[in-house]
Design a protein that fits this description.
The complex is a heterodimer of chains A (about 160) and B (about 400). Chain A has 7 helices and 5 strands. By secondary structure, chain A is an alpha+beta fold. Chain A folds into 2 domains: about 60 residues, Arc Repressor Mutant, subunit A (Orthogonal Bundle); about 80 residues, Glutaredoxin (3-Layer(aba) Sandwich). Chain A starts with a helix and ends with a helix. With about 400 residues, chain B is an alpha/beta fold. Chain B folds into 2 domains: about 210 residues, NADH-ubiquinone oxidoreductase 51kDa subunit (Rossmann fold, 3-Layer(aba) Sandwich), CATH 3.40.50.11540; about 90 residues, de novo design (two linked rop proteins) (Up-down Bundle), CATH 1.20.1440.230. In chain B, the strands form 2 sheets. A 5-stranded mixed β-sheet of chain B has the order 6-5-9-7-8. A 4-stranded parallel β-sheet of chain B has the order 3-2-1-4, with helices on both faces. In chain B, a hairpin with a 5-residue loop joins strand 5 and strand 6. In chain B, helix 4 crosses helix 5. The chains are: A alpha+beta (about 160), B alpha/beta (about 400). The complex binds flavin mononucleotide (FMN), iron/sulfur cluster and FE2/S2 (inorganic) cluster. The site of iron/sulfur cluster has 14 residues of chain B, from helix 12 and helix 14.
Chain lengths: ~160, ~400
């Protein structure tokens, strides 16, 4: 990472700490915002958060590594999470899975070379009455068929 | 189709019946804490989050506790496979849920309420925040609520980050405090040592929504619905093989046979009651009742018709538990992997019955030796599916590679 990038990340984290406070309970909200903005939480970011919250960096690492929605390595700009739990599975998850893989040219748990897309599975999204369902970044899409799933990808910048 | 907030017209006896926003708060402040606790106890309501603990007991313990601060946490982690009723309550009936939180706060003496919303539901965050703003404008939140001198209460929303186990109340508290969502040893229970070490009530979304109805309409009215031991109504999240999936409000005591008629299911072979951690009930037992005393559930109902392979269903559940185990204790961390492996070996036909029996023993060990409800209940589908569908699984020829 370049020096000015480091500085700006430090500044950014300082602003977050100002907003959420220095309590340990602020950790998750802070990490969630860093993840959202940078598509991962770098080692440097983890260290900075630890320094500013006055906790050991390994504490931050242990939290980042625990949650499915937080990543330690760069992810694509957009993350697609396809529900693989049984109701969606029965509603035709497999066809969506194949269509997404074909369209993006990657497998699940991979990121496209242009870093635009990451494919992941997720457990039940709470949309089982409208499966198959997937999460694209913050948005939930339901009643997918292969065509609409691909359409949603193409419509997301 | 993008999931958005769209209020559909729903009908039901208790939760889906008409309600004026703010009315339970108003009533609660009129009648006072003692009377609220009395009504809640009389109503015999039990927690709707799955465990079925009497709500009044929880509230009384925290109300009686001497502490500088107390908290009410609404558990909206809704991660049990097949459950989506809290999504409907939060998007279509936020008044019931948030009013219930205010009533709880007033009763137990809390000034802060926290809604722990699963990260997957971030799409509803903005609307929920807007709703809280409107409550503040109407003095249903904030200082001296509805003119009640000294009653200050506000609600904030915190997001989860994709971990099923965070729905377990002590893991949820760990998560709120900024830690890994690993369940704690209990006791102490959150009613003693909860958020930040203070007495805390953790209640499910539906429990709190029901409270709003109990307060406005009374315990006696509430008890006219349901059974002797399971009072009131329940929201059932129905998915799988049926023509009308969705959320249904039905009285406790409804039988599975009645339910499949209502949702228009045909050729039903099995119903998974209670989500992945629940049990799989075969056709021969569809006269069973949905209630705490019989087939208990936090609301997840998944229907499988004759075309489904139950071994595939089981594999999907075990895969879920392997993924979602927090890994803190050995019976659950290793046990679920072993059970999944067993399902895969059955699939390939590489098993002996003594091996299967040893895996059933392991299941029973997990049920007693796991630290939290996840590992204690993850063997449920394994045991119930292997038992109830043994003919299909062990005697049919086509048990090679199976697809649902
Ligand atoms: C693994 C696991 C996941 C759970 N997930 C939820 C959940 O998503 N929502 C919920 O209300 N309760 C969940 N519970 C139950 C909670 O621990 C707790 O009993 C409940 O929130 C209490 O609220 P109630 O008494 O109103 O039901 C879960 C329990 C376990 C063991
Ligand atoms: S039972 Fe499973 S989820 Fe619960 S504490 Fe043990 S390892 Fe974690
Ligand atoms: S099974 Fe896919 S949303 Fe529940």
């Amino acid at each position: 990472m370049l020096v000015y990038e480091k500085n700006s990340l430090s500044d950014e984290i300082e602003v977050l700490i100002e907003k959420f406070g220095k309590e340990r309970s602020a950790l998750l909200p802070i990490l969630q915002i860093i993840e959202k903005r940078h598509n991962y939480i770098s080692e440097f970011a983890q260290q900075e958060v630890a320094r500013l919250l006055d906790i050991h960096p390994v504490e931050v690492y242990s939290v980042v590594s625990f949650y499915n929605f937080l990543h330690r390595y760069p992810q694509g700009k957009n993350i697609v999470r396809l529900c693989k739990t049984i109701s969606c599975d029965m509603a035709g998850k497999r066809e969506i899975e194949e269509a997404l893989k074909r369209e993006l040219g990657i497998n699940f748990d991979e990121t496209t070379r242009d870093k635009k897309w990451t494919l992941e599975y997720t457990s039940c999204l709470g949309m089982c009455d409208q499966g198959p369902a997937m999460l694209v970044n913050d948005k939930v899409y339901t009643k997918l068929d292969p065509e609409t799933a691909v359409q949603i990808i193409n419509d997301t910048k | 189709m993008e999931a958005k907030i769209n209020k559909t017209h729903r009908e039901g006896a208790v939760l889906f019946s008409p309600y004026d926003a703010g009315s339970s708060i108003k009533k609660a402040l009129e009648v006072g804490r003692e009377n609220i606790l009395f009504e809640v106890r009389e109503s015999k309501i039990k927690g709707r989050g799955g465990a079925g603990f009497p709500t009044a007991t929880k509230w009384m313990l925290v109300a009686a506790a001497k502490a500088d601060k107390k908290y009410i946490v609404c558990n909206a982690d809704e991660g049990e496979p097949g459950t989506f009723k809290d999504r409907v309550l939060l998007t279509e009936y936020p008044d019931l849920v948030f009013d219930g939180m205010v009533v709880a706060g007033y009763t137990i003496g809390a000034e802060i309420g926290i809604l722990y919303l699963r990260g997957e539901y971030i799409f509803m965050l903005e609307q929920l925040e807007d709703y809280l703003i409107s409550m503040r404008q109407n003095n249903l939140l904030g200082k001296n609520i509805l003119g009640k001198e000294g009653f200050n209460f506000d609600i904030s929303i915190r997001l989860g980050s994709g971990a099923y186990v965070c729905g377990e109340e002590t893991a949820l508290i760990e998560s709120l405090e900024g830690h890994r969502g690993e369940p704690r040893n209990r006791p102490p229970y959150p009613v003693n040592t909860g958020y930040m070490g203070y007495p805390t009530v953790v209640n499910n979304v539906e429990t709190l929504a029901s409270i709003s109805k109990i307060i406005t309409k009374g315990a006696d009215w509430f008890k006219t619905h349901g059974t002797e031991k399971s009072t009131g109504s329940k929201l059932f999240s129905v998915s799988g093989d049926c023509k009308k999936p969705g959320v249904y409000e039905l009285p406790w005591g409804t039988t599975l046979n009645e339910l499949i008629k209502i949702v228009d299911a045909e050729n039903t072979k099995a119903i998974q009651v209670g989500g992945a951690s629940g049990v799989c009930i075969p056709k021969s037992q569809f006269d069973r009742q949905l209630s705490y005393e019989d087939a208990s559930t936090g609301g997840s109902i998944m229907i499988f018709n004759e075309s489904r392979k139950m071994l595939h269903v089981l594999k999907n559940f075990m895969d879920f538990f392997v993924e979602e185990s927090c890994g803190q204790c050995t019976p659950c961390r290793i046990g679920n992997v072993k059970l999944l492996e067993c399902v895969e070996r059955i699939e390939k036909g590489e098993y002996t019955f003594s091996y299967i029996n040893s895996m059933k023993d392991l299941s029973r060990t997990m049920q007693v030796a796991s630290k939290c409800g996840l590992g204690q209940s993850s063997p449920n589908p394994f045991l119930s599916i292997l038992e109830n569908f043994k003919d299909e699984i062990f005697r049919s020829k086509e048990n090679g590679v199976s697809h649902a």
